[in-house]
Amino acid sequence: MQAAAMQDHLRDRLYEVSPEQFEILCKMVLSRRLETESVQVTAFRQDDGIDVEGVIEEDVVRVLFGAQVKRYHEGNTVSSGHVQRFSGALTQGNYQTGTFLTSSSFTGPARRAAENLQIHLVDGEQLAATMVSNSIGVAERVSGYELQPEFWDALTEPERTDTIPSKEVPLANSFESLREFLAAIDETDGTRAEINNAVSEFDSRHADLYGTAGWLLGFVHEDTPTEVDGREVRRWGLTKNGLEYRRLHESGDTEAARKRLIAGLRQVEVVDRLATVIAERGSLSYDELKAVLAAETDLSESSVARRASTLGQWLTVLPEIAERPEGRSKKFVSV
Question: What residues does the Restriction endonuclease type IV Mrr domain cover (predicted)?
Fold first, then answer.
C-alpha cells in the first residue's frame, strides 16, 4: 500500500494494541529515532509518570530525557492537566527534556501548555507518519509499503490455542536464575552478550530459555533486531510486571513477589491446563503429566520429558497444588 494508506493502517493498529504494548512500541520507535551509539532507552523505570527514559550522550552533550505514553481510543484526547503533571514528573526526576506520546490527539490547551513548558508532543498521526518515513515497523518495497512482521511480533503475547506451540512450554526450572536474568536486563542494555557477561553461568541458550520463560510470565518482551557495528542484535526488555516482581523480591517483600509470580503463572496456558486437570482429578502422576503434555502440545517425545520437570516446579508454586512422593516418582495433588 502507499504511504498515506499505510499511515492510516498504522493509526488503526495503534488503537488495537494494549496500553502496555503501546508503551513497548513507543520505546522501540524512540530507540530507532535517537540515532546515537550511546542512547539507552528503558521502559517502565519510574512509578511517577515517566514511562520511558533514556540518555543521549554525544561529545560534550549529555541529556536525560523522559517520555510519557498514553494509549487512548480515538476521540479521547490528552488534556492540559496531563501535560502539566508530566512536567512535574520531569522536574522531580531531574530530566532535561520530555516527550509526550499518544495514539489519539491533544487538546488546544494541552498544546499551549506543552509549548510553555518546552515539552514535545507526538500524537497518533505524527507517530504513524514517523514510523512510515523512517521504516519503523514497516518496510518499503517496489510496490509500496508493507508491515514488518518482526517488529509487530515483539508486541505479541502468548495466544490461547487448541494445541499449545512448543515455544509456549517453558524449559527454565530455576526462579532464582530467572531473577538473575531480569536483573541482568535491568542493569545492562538487554542484549544476549551483555546478559551473558552479567550472569557468568549463562550462555546464549540460557538467555533464550529464561527470556522465553519471562515472556510467558509477562515479565519481559523481546525487542526487534537493530544493527550494531554491522551486525544484527536483539535486546530483551522488562515489562512493568517484570520490573515489579524484581523490585519486590529485592526489597525483601518476598510474599508480594510470590503473589506477582503466581499471577504470572496463572496466565501461562500450559500451566492453566495442567492445574485444571489436577483440580478435576484430585491428583496427577508425573507420567500422567507427561501424557497431558504430549496430548496438548506439539512437543516431541524427548522434549516432553525435559519440559515436564520444569512444569512440575512451576505448578507447585501455585498455592492449591503440592508435590507428593509416589514410589520412585512423584505426583501433584490438590490441597
Answer: 15-131
